[in-house]
């Protein structure tokens, strides 16, 4: 098994074992049985779905026996899963499995980064954020540059492969963005060739020298080591800005010792959770404790196997009481979604960006006997207002996606909108005094 994405305190696991050398029909029936039994044994609360799972088995077993092809069996299993009415249960067919396996083998190894992130906009790849002192900046790259190729691989071809691999996934936007950015990583000191295009200019070839990302190389629970990065600064206009890439214990320490003291006199604070795929769920409470002054509030509730885990907020002064904006995108998942949704629903923060991943729950992807992959969740999360985020995501108060126009201006649309909102709150406060 190989870990490919962190979700809260669990992870999504991909296993691509070869299909057993048995009769295809037997493998398909075994896959039907595996899916039904997995949901029966591992669903956190089948009764809450209103579905009698034994009756579902009786209903779909004859249909499974009548299936004459793998495609028909897949349709039967999908229909059975859909009886649950929950989007995070899904079958990834053999085509997606094969495409994903090919991508896994072709994805560059190494933790070194190019100093920028890319986004898919109108099926083209553009640089959407850029580190001030990273390899991309040193190579003369700019926000809004279109990437035509990386390592002599045409981006159009790569995008098609990635979309094909995840087309059946319940969290396709999340995985597409993550996989797309992985193709720009590699070994420290490696030279990576790019071909870029800028409006009104000829295509240009650029060579990057990848470097290790700033931050601390850490291991979280049983997950592979990763670089933890935490950035904290005061932006123009006296607005605090905090960004980190994973929810680990170091975040609490950095936020309390570094960010809060420095930002006590700022006009507002922006917490950027774009691309943050999760980590330790309890840390969402730790930050909320320093940002909320009202007692008796919570970020939501997670249920698993008849037990409930609440996310209560216990205000801990000195904290921060100024205007608060949170930035999210399709790469914001798990703990990031719990924090953003909770702070939004209690009225403490305004959310900017695009809808988050809708991947709040501990989720697994496991192989079926016939070679298909089965994705299923292990728990349920309910927001303070009773909403389920899994499959739905957090909806921003202000939808501010990257656009060709904003990128052409070299502008980070969500960050720009959040800064403007904070300035407006300051003006309102001055008028009310």
Task: Describe it.
With 433 residues, the chain is an alpha+beta fold. The protein folds into 3 domains: 2-92, Transcription Regulator spoIIAA; 112-209, PDZ domain (Pdz3 Domain), CATH 2.30.42.10; 216-360 and 381-426, 2-enoyl-CoA Hydratase, Chain A, domain 1 (Alpha-Beta Complex). Helix content is 33%, strand content 25%. The protein contains 12 helices and 22 strands. The protein has helices at 24-42, 53-66, 70-82, 94-106, 135-138, 155-166, 172-182, 249-262, 282-289, 335-345, 404-408, 413-432, and strands at residues 2-7, 10-14, 90-92, 116-121, 124-130, 146-150, 153-154, 191-197, 204-209, 216-218, 226-228, 230-235, 239-244, 268-272, 298-304, 307-312, 324-328, 350-353, 363-367, 373-377, 380-382, 398-399. The strands form 7 sheets. A 6-stranded mixed beta sheet has the order 12-13-14-17-18-22, sandwiched between helices. Helix 1 runs parallel beside helix 3 (70-82), helix 2 runs antiparallel to helix 3 and helix 9 (282-289) packs parallel to helix 10. It is globular, with a radius of gyration of 23 Å. The N and C termini lie far apart (60 Å).
Broad CATH class of the largest domain: Alpha Beta
| Fraction of helical residues | 25-40%
Major β-sheet profile = 6 strands, mixed
What ranges have pLDDT less than 50 throughout 5 or more consecutive residues? 1-22
What is the fold named in CATH at topology level of the largest domain? 2-enoyl-CoA Hydratase, Chain A, domain 1
Q: Superfamily at the CATH H level of the largest domain? A: 2-enoyl-CoA Hydratase, Chain A, domain 1
Number of strands: 22
Find the structural class using helix and strand composition: alpha+beta
Give Rg in angstroms.
Answer: 23 Å
Mean pLDDT over all positions? 86
In DSSP terms (H or I, runs of 4 or more residues), the helix count works out at 12
